Target: Alpha/beta hydrolase-fold protein
Amino acid sequence: MSAESPNTPVLDHDVVLWSADEATRTGRPLLVLLHGYGSHEGDLFGLVPSLPDAFAYAAVRAPLAPPFPTPGHSWYPIDGLDGRDPSHVTAAASALVSWIDRVAPDVPVGLLGFSQGGAVSLQALRLQPERFAFAVNLSGYVTPGDLPGDATIAESRPPVFWGRGTADEVIPPALIDHTTQWLPGHADLSGRVYPGLTHSVSEQEMSDVRVFLEKQLETLGG
Model:
C-alpha cells in the first residue's frame, strides 16, 4: 500500500471511464490511462478501440485544476516557482497508487500516460516497482531526483515504452536529456523517436504501442 500525506491529492472514482463493467473485467490485466495537462479522462480513452482487447482499461481524471483560463485538469502544477517540482509529481503518483490499490488490488496493472500522465506513470513505477507490470510514456519524461524504488527498478528492469517526436517543443530539453540517460539503466526500454511529430500521438506511434502491449500480454499470460 502507498503512504499518503495531507498534501496528497485524491482521485475521483466517480469520473473514471472503464472499458468494461466490474463483472467482465474481473481477473483481466488492467491498463490505466493518464491524460496530459489541461485535458480530461475522455482524451486517451478514445485510443482504447485501437489497443488490445485482452486488457481492461480505466481512464482516470487528474485531481487538480490548472490556473484560469486553461481548461481541463492537471496532475501537478507547472506554473511559477513550483513548476515541475518533483514533490508534486510524487504526490500525484502516490494518489494514483492509492486509487489502484483500492480498485485493482489483485490483478496485473500497467500504466499508459501522455505528457504529464507519462511523467506520473514513471513516478508511480518508481514508487511501487512491484505493483506495476510495465509503463508506456508518450511525450513525457522521468522526473529528476532519487526515489527509494530506483535501485529495485535498476535490478528488475521493468518494460517501459517511451515515444516522443523530434518537433516536440513542450518538454524542456533538459528533461529529455535526463530521461534519455536515466531510462536505459533502469528499464527494459523500447524507445521510439518519430521524425516531425509534435507534442502529440501519431498512428505509427500507436501501432508501436500496440505491439509493445501485445508483448506484455504474452508475458502476463493474457
Summary: Helices lie at 22-25, 41-45, 86-103, 116-127, 150-156, 173-182, 203-220. The CA atoms of residues 30 and 153 lie 21 Å apart. The chain has one domain: 13-220.
